[in-house]
Design goal:
This protein is an alpha/beta fold. The protein folds into 2 domains: 50 residues; 163 residues, Uracil-DNA glycosylase-like domain (Uracil-DNA Glycosylase, subunit E).
């Protein structure tokens, strides 16, 4: 294993948009969710309300309804400072689902996940295992609204957003989920340990309704962390190789 690819940013961060992402998608394009202007009834998403009825309604939504609901969501305090909610991007029938933490400043401005510096590195990580965003890959976050100053989302905020991520998983039905960082792992697995203790383990996500089979999970480092901690890129490469081998074994 010490043979890791060099995940350099191939272009300056402020350069051209990432591949596979249209600048101005049509309003109903599920690949670019959360741009809709319509609001759901305010009672559906009042701050602090995390009722089973809301989760059940979200569990019934199609992509269009999810897009509208997320754009109007007021279920936690993150709504107050967002420019726009960021539902996700990619192939809605993807085998691969990558889940990050939450939108940063550039994602909040552009309405797409992982378009800032961490996103450039994620694209390079995908390329290292012959993947490309939008092509058999969907990218989402644990929370759909930017936490102020890019802080880690709180447990309550992730819980409020969980029905959306769960519905995305149910609609996509990926064969493998890669969790990027501790917050994403926390969102789908609960508080079950440090990132280091989750890496390399055989884990799976069981949908709440039990409607589909458990989906294998791989936990690895968040690209933003890797940008700050270069030595751990080799470990992330190990995780990606493991994910690729796992996916091949599922074929
Ligand atoms: N970090 C994340 O976790 N998600 C994004 O979309 C961008 C940065």
């Amino acid at each position: 294993m010490g043979l890791s690819p060099i995940w350099r940013l191939r272009t300056p961060v402020a350069a051209s948009p990432p591949p596979m992402v249209a600048a101005e998608p049509p309003a109903v394009d599920p690949l670019h969710a959360a741009r809709a202007e319509h609001a759901l009834p305010a009672s559906d998403d009042t701050p602090g309300v995390a009722d089973a009825g809301r989760a059940a309604r979200i569990a019934d939504m199609d992509w269009r309804e999810l897009q509208v609901s997320v754009a109007a969501c007021r279920a936690c305090q993150l709504c107050s400072e967002r420019r726009q909610a960021v539902l996700g991007v990619g192939d809605v029938h993807a085998d691969w689902l990558f889940v990050g933490e939450g939108p940063g400043a550039e994602e909040d401005a552009r309405g797409e996940p992982f378009v800032g510096p961490a996103g450039k590195l994620l694209d390079a990580m995908l390329a290292a295992i012959d993947l490309r965003r939008g092509d058999d890959v969907y990218i989402a976050n644990a929370v759909k609204c930017r936490p102020p100053r890019n802080r880690t989302p709180e447990a309550g905020e992730m819980a409020a957003c969980a029905p959306y991520l769960q519905r995305q998983i149910a609609l996509i039905q990926p064969r493998l989920i890669v969790l990027l960082g501790r917050a994403a792992a926390h969102a789908l697995l609960g508080e079950i340990g440090s990132l280091g203790s989750l890496r390399g383990r055989s884990l799976s996500y069981s949908p709440p309704a039990g409607s589909t089979r458990p989906i294998p999970l791989v936990v690895t480092y968040h690209p933003a962390y890797l940008l700050r901690t270069l030595p751990d890129k080799a470990k992330a490469w190990e995780d990606l190789c493991r994910a690729r081998a796992l996916m091949r074994s599922l074929a």
